[in-house]
Amino acid sequence: MVDMLNLLIWNCRGAANKGVASVIRDMWSRYKLSLVIILEPRISGAQASKTIRQWGFKHSIRKEAVAFSGGIWLLWELDDLKVDVLELDEQVIHCNLRVGEDECLFSAVYASLSEHRRHDLWNLLSRLAGDIVVTWMLAGDFNDIKTPLEQVGGGRVNETRCKHFNNWIQDCNLIDVGAKGPFYTWKGPKWDGLERVYKRLDRCLCNVLWQEKFDKAEIQVVPRLCLDHHPLLVNLYGMEEGRRGRHFRYEAAWQMHEEFEQILTNSWKGEDEAHVKLTELQKTLTRWNKEVFGKIEGRKRRLLNRLHGIQRSVERRINPFLVNLEIKLEEELLHTLRQEEVLWFQKSRGRWLEEGDRNTRYYHMKTLCRRRRNKISMLKRDDGTWADEEVEISATFQRFYHKLFEEDRGVSMWTLTKQRWGMVNEAKLRNVGRDPNGDEIRRVFFQMGGFKAPGSDGYPAVFYQQNWRVVGRSMI
After folding, report:
1. End-to-end Cα separation, the chain, in angstroms
2. What domain of life does the native source organism fall in (predicted)?
3. Any idea where the domains of the chain sit in the sequence?
4. Is pTM beyond 0.70 here?
């Protein structure tokens, strides 16, 4: 969806409100929006049509407000963007978004304040979810929270209601995409005797297929201006990243290749220190991975295509050579699938792996969710403003740590304490001062989590554990 990059979803609580038009036009220009979803415009008919024209949109789909309440608008300018409505309801517009040959399902949600009607919406979306086998995203004001942590202030949270909302999300096999920026998306009223209430009512949900296809997508909570809801900005392809050299990371799947042991043995010859050998091995493995090992997905696809061709040929005429080649390719494909599983397991930093249980998709999704959770696309500066460009984020980190390590901390107060510590006897003192022996060093390496985060050299503990026979002597 090359042309459909940015979507804006906003419960503006009245499209005719003062300032709404200026905000829409500003965000349209600033974020280069492809599609704008307006919730609760509270106007309809001729007034709605006039407002949309004044905002500058050529195309629109509307579910009209009823008696100045509710309503959902989809607004866009590009002729290339095709929006096919599949379900038009007071609480959701469910449609197919298409640009050229690329498409995905999208549901613009404005859930009712009425619990009974909101359950009608959950039932409708559950019915739709049961038939969906393509990418699907839902975004809008769900008027519910998943956990008490999504509310601060106001009255007591209805935890039963939270549970029902969570159950619905899980039953539909949906994922909360999360968002960058302010956590609470709605500022409520302040009642007597209570603090002002803030809630996370606006969110984006998606199915697994959407998460896999748009794994770099980012949701940003845009600053709220005057009104009580924050707009949500959806960038399907994420923040543009600068070209940076990729750090070396040892892949455990390399160990399963027939050439790996010879590469390691050749790199470990000689009397150089371990860190020199590891550096040279990095260079060799990086080159070998590019030229020989390659991308597993491409290798898997080639093997499947060759198998498909052979199996079609064998159906027409038995050929002993092709029969033997089929067996060989099947074995190679199974080996490749196992490598793929190990690759994604390592990237997901999972804690268990049952032999023979190829659950690659689980590890893939775990990795994508962790990557999305850990990615920093906005960072708050000391003055309270936000850095959202990669260069600015990097500079903000550098300034923080430069200031942190430059500060003069003075005399540490623990040196002034009157606390007296017990004496260490001579035998223990000698033991503390001695060098660790080979068995102790080996034991430390094998007690580490094999797939935990690697050191600065890119080698996790599993590298040493699997290759101790070759590298162990250099580590002692």
Report:
1. 54
2. Eukaryota
3. 6-235, 252-374
4. no
Classified as helix, coil or strand, 60 is: strand
Distance CA 322, CA 315 (A): 11
Q: Which position has the token pair 């049509």?
A: 49
Distance CA 252, CA 260 (A): 11
CATH for 6-235 is: 3.60.10.10
Per-residue pLDDT reduced to its tens digit, 221-264: 888 876 889 999 999 877 554 444 567 888 888 888 888 999 99
pLDDT digits (tens, 9 = 90+) for 25-79: 888 877 889 999 999 999 999 999 999 998 989 999 999 988 778 899 999 998 8
Q: Which residues contact 188 (CB under 8 A, 6 or more apart)?
A: 153, 154, 196, 197, 198, 199, 228
- Is the alpha carbon torsion for 445, 448, 450, 453 positive or negative? negative
For residues 396 and 379, is the Cβ–Cβ distance under 8 A?
yes
Cα distance between residue 306 and residue 285, in whole Å: 28
Tokens of 284: 């060799």
SS3 6: strand
Q: Do you know the residue count of the chain?
A: 476
Per-residue pLDDT tens over the stretch 318-327:
678 887 888 8
Residue 36, phi then psi, degrees to nearest 5: -120, 130
**Six-digit token string for 91:** 């609480």
Strand arrangement of the beta sheet that strand 92-99 belongs to: 81-88, 92-99, 102-110, 136-141, 202-206, 175-176
| Three-state SS sequence of 188-203 | CCCCCCCCCCEECCEE
Bridge partners, residue 59, by sequence? 76
Question: Sorting pLDDT into bands at 50, 70 and 90, what band is 365?
Answer: low
Find out whether 230 and 223 touch, Cβ atoms under 8 Å: yes
Distance CA 220, CA 230 (A): 10
pLDDT for residue 419: 63
Burial of 20 (0-12, 13-18, 19+ CB in 10 A): buried
Contact 2, 99 (CB under 8 A): yes
Tally of CB atoms within 10 A around 396: 18
